[in-house]
Design goal:
Blueprint lengths: L40 E3 L3 H25 L1 H7 L2 H13 L2 H7 L3 H11 L3 H11 L14 H25 L6 H30 L2 H9 L1 E3 H7 L8 E2 L2 H7 L13
Helix pairs in contact: 1-2, 1-3, 1-4, 7-8
Length: about 260
């Protein structure tokens, strides 16, 4: 009967044991394949959509700034040149529709307009949870949540009303004095409402760096998309370099060439 091999040594004539690589699972653990990481980035906005947003934001900023210089005495005295300020205000307001109209040539922009115009049952769930400040109930959302849809629809209607009433104020001969007075009343109060809504919109954007990054670069983190917009299925995923490296099969080492 052969003598038992000392503890920790291999029996005579047997193949040398393969040492486990550093960081491997402990003995007895089930072997597991490395799952591909989901820390990549996904495409959210096309270049055309980003430029539409930037142009609209710049024109809206000119509108609000020039309106403040017209209605606040302190700013009016500081800036002066009222006629120039009025001209800037009128033309920035009239040009607000231009980025939108040019953007209709973009297929991605038209697709997002259709998404913004659809309001489904999950959007009602999102709105109820948001209005009740319910942090427990899940807030399902597609590419755009219900709050973004309501904001986009309200702002589009407000811009149309502001453009119409502003035209009546600028071209005084279009309607009698009574209608012009009503137009001034609607224009002024709606302008105040637009300013408050824009301030809230900017506040939400400042509180969400990843959303701002999506508008700046066109892509967002996959984890953010799955958390904030779980019903959205990105059509063009963009993997980071690190994710691509983890998904590529590693070259076979010496221990893997035995066909086990």
């Amino acid at each position: 009967m052969p003598e038992a091999a000392p503890s920790g040594s291999a029996p005579s004539g047997s193949a040398p044991s393969r040492s486990a690589p550093s960081g491997s699972a402990p003995p007895g653990a089930a072997p597991s394949k490395a799952a591909p990481r989901r820390s990549g980035r996904v495409r959210r906005f096309s270049p055309a959509e980003r430029w539409i947003h930037r142009a609209t934001a710049a024109l809206m900023g000119l509108c609000v700034a020039s309106a403040a210089c017209l209605y606040l005495p302190a700013l009016a005295e500081l800036v002066g040149r009222r006629h120039l300020v009025v001209t800037v205000h009128v033309w920035s307001g009239l040009l607000l529709a231009v980025p939108f109209l040019l953007g209709l040539a973009s297929r991605a922009f038209r697709a997002d307009l259709r998404r913004l115009g659809r309001f489904g049952p999950h959007d009602r769930v999102w709105l109820r949870a948001a209005l009740r400040r319910d942090r427990v109930t899940a807030r399902p959302a597609g590419k755009f949540n219900a709050g973004q849809k309501v904001y986009a629809g309200w702002l589009a209607g407000a811009v149309l009303v502001m453009t119409g009433t502003g035209a009546l104020m600028w071209w005084t001969g279009l309607v009698p004095l009574v209608q012009r007075t009503a137009a001034v009343f609607v224009h002024d109060w709606l302008a105040l409402a637009v300013g408050l809504v824009l301030a809230a919109h900017i506040g939400k954007a400042l509180a969400d760096p990843e959303a701002r990054r999506g508008l700046r670069t066109g892509s967002v983190g996959r984890a953010w998309a799955e958390r904030e917009h779980p019903l959205w299925q990105p059509e063009q995923p963009e993997q980071t370099e690190q994710t691509e490296q983890t998904e590529q099969p590693a070259p076979a080492g010496p221990a893997e060439t035995h066909g086990g």
